[in-house]
Fold this sequence. Notes:
Low-confidence stretches: none
Number of helices: 12
CATH class of the largest domain: Alpha Beta
Amino acid sequence: MKVLCIEQPGKMVLKDMPRPTLQTGQAVVKMKECGICGSDVTAYKGVNPTMKYPVDGIGHEGVGIIEEIGENSKGLKPGDRVVLEPYVPCNQCHMCKAGRFNNCVNLRVCGVHKNGMMAEYFLHPVQLLYKIPQNLTFTRATIVEPLTIGLHGATRARVAKGDHVVIFGAGTIGLLAAFACLNYGAVPILMDVLQTRLDEAKALGIPHVYNSRDGGVAQELEKVFGRLPDAMIDCTGSPFVLQEMHNYVRHGGRIALVGWPHEPVAINTVRCMQKELDICPCRNSNAKFPEAIRLVNEGKVPTTEIISKTVQLEEVEQTIQDMAQNPADYRKVVVKI
């Protein structure tokens, strides 16, 4: 079978590897499509701090059809169309026992710490397979995994109906976090320095956008909402945003950190304490796949508009190179396997 591998930064190889054999508690999935994530781009560039090289297979936003599976408590069977949760827990540590599988002490993420999903066949735990409705296309279903990240960020920030929320970063995750807030009954404002992304977000139904390159972010927030927001979700990892985040929420505000900084960032802990802010780093997502599948299937998220391009396995390396050079030209790219 064909598997798209990253052997080292800047070196991607399409290999012919043995098809996986069925194991207890796992299923063999015939992969149909897989999204390219920003973390795949940084892994290729060699600037992803969590990446372990080499990895047999890249990608973690996969969907496919169950080829082989044994008896299981989820009622899954061969022929079922599924989306795959890519965060593989140990099921033994204190975090797993507390139900926080996304924060497993020994967590392995597909395409990062273990083999990834851009392969013709993929062996994956039954625990992490979720059946999708028959009328939901595989292409639209590739948005499920990134949507879970936005949903988890909103949950960590305790976003509730009637809240005002500022979201930094209008890329795919930031946009999906904004739609997560809308579906929770909150009012988001989306910040970015790329006006084209903000214009697209506005056209897709995000009520408020603002180009933070213009400065005056706190003033704009007070102008739009009448006061500083209740919550903030950062999807950039930008040092400037994190250094100033205490200025962007009210006293007692909640901040979810979704974007990965490339290095440690100085934070004004004095102001964070004076405002008694709840600052919650986010790692992957937890128990959000059923919710994300429902929202995508019900059309609560504009999936087709978010997907900007589809490519074949043989085109992935060239596409990732272009994504690295021209990020504003892309939202979500989906690979046909």
